[in-house]
What we know:
The complex is a heterodimer.
Chain A: H1 6-44, H2 50-65, H3 68-78, H4 88-113, H5 117-125, H6 130-160, H7 172-183, H8 187-218
Chain B: E1 21-30, E2 33-43, E3 48-52, H1 59-66, E4 74-79, E5 82-83, E6 86-89, E7 92-95, H2 98-105, E8 108-111, H3 123-133, H4 139-152, H5 168-180, E9 186-190, H6 198-214, E10 218-222, H7 226-232, E11 235-240, E12 243-248, H8 250-255, H9 260-272
Parallel strand pairs in B: 3-10, 3-11, 8-9, 9-10
Antiparallel strand pairs in B: 1-2, 1-4, 4-5, 6-7, 11-12
Helix pairs in contact in B: 3-4, 3-5, 4-5, 5-6
The structure holds adenosine-5'-triphosphate and magnesium ion (MG).
Amino acid sequence: MLDWNWQFTWEILPRLIVATGNTLLAAGLGYGIAVVIGLVFALAQRTPFSVVTIVVREAVEFIRSTPLVLQIFFVFYVGPQFGIRLSPWTAGMIAIGLHYAAYLSEVYRGGIESVPKGQWEAATSLNLSTARTYFRVVIPQALPPSLAGMGNYLVGIFKDTPMLSVIGVAELMHTANAIGSETYRFLEPYTLVGVIFLLISLPTAAGIRLFEGWVRRKLGMVS
Amino acid sequence: MNAQDLSAFPMALQGDNVPMVSFKNVTKSYGSLVVLDALDLDVAEGEMVTIIGPSGSGKTTVLRMLMTLETINEGVIYVDGEPLTHMPNGNGLVPANRSHLRKMRSKIGMCFQHFNLFPHMTALENCMEGPVHVLGLSKKEARERSEELLALVGMAEKRDQHPSRLSGGQQQRVAIARAMAMRPKVMLFDEVTSALDPEVIGEVTNVIRKLVAEHNLTMLMVTHQMGFAKDISDRVCFFYGGRIEEQGTPDELFGNPRRERTQQFLSAVKEAV
Ligand SMILES: Nc1ncnc2c1ncn2[C@@H]1O[C@H](COP(=O)(O)OP(=O)(O)OP(=O)(O)O)[C@@H](O)[C@H]1O
Ligand SMILES: [Mg+2]
């Protein structure tokens, strides 16, 4: 029989709610970094400069083939040996942002490659510059097919934020651990963490699907 | 492949009657497949030249090379007297840099078989994109110009529709307006009616007739519609195997083809109709 203590549950809830704020902030910031840097990674792999292309492609491959938690440790603990001393938040955001940037760059790449060749040719025939072609013609069309993948990684980064607890970012997992070691009760904090993740993940996933449909309509593209 | 010797080509075409478009000894190949074989082709300013010929004879390639969508292996193309994908350097020609290419490209417009309208923009936005972001017109000027052209092609009412809401013929007319909005000197049409249902072909060909009548454009058109080619062209070129097998006025070429391959092609086309 589980001995679930409701009074204890209500006591720790406020602390966990505050920590939820940190989790959302970490996921949001990390995702923001990933969205932008991911685009840089994707575009860099399409430049005519083969050195850039190869370096970025290998970096993306490297990031995707090693565990996130290792990358977090690496940035936080190995950085200082090179004189780069970062706060847990900064190190965590860099690590998780770059990690997801690598994944998102692949999503973007797929989206960009799905844009028909004729669109590029039309842009050339109108004499649009390369930058204009990307930002006005290609990326808007690459977006709808990328949104599902982008949404998956938004939920993914959110679920990966507990890994930031290993370097002391005070997000949900870190807070639940702290509560556990203070009170020797683990059932309630961990259960609550699970419920909170569920309550955020599920609506987010549904929201992303609605957003996808809205973007397609907004861009005048029939789905 | 070795860089070709360009010393035989002038840095610019000068004198009276410089053609608007001039292919000089242009060769294009993909691997061992020679698609254009030492092509020489001049098109005078204001001339309407139609290219006909069997599938794979290099018709599309001619237009794509002019639009700088394909690289050139040998020879030089001149547009308005200046080399298209080369530029003068010292006393010879070298491959053109980006700014030269963009300058030359601004003289040329192209319409594609599959329209290639931007699906996330309305008809009007499609037309305004180039004038605003390439030519630097104000939104207002670009809008006026685009609306005028959409009216010319009979698409004024549909200007706020996205391409997905337009029929093929309507999309192609918007594509023509979009290309014209850049005020090119040379317009290229690559089988612009081939992807259309028979009943809407006329609305596109009528627009092209109108352009011929009202604008002093130089045009190169690839088409399989012999009737249309016959009554609109100043000259018809019959392509075969990457070369011009025969060319002449529509009356000469259609009425009295001299080469056997031309005769065969024309009678095969006639049977198919
Ligand atoms: N990117 C490419 N790579 C390899 N071969 C190509 C490429 N583009 C065209 N070709 C070949 O070049 C030849 C000429 O092609 P082109 O498109 O100019 O023919 P076309 O006369 O327009 O034919 P159609 O009437 O079928 O449109 C064809 O044999 C084609 O297969
Ligand atoms: Mg063709």
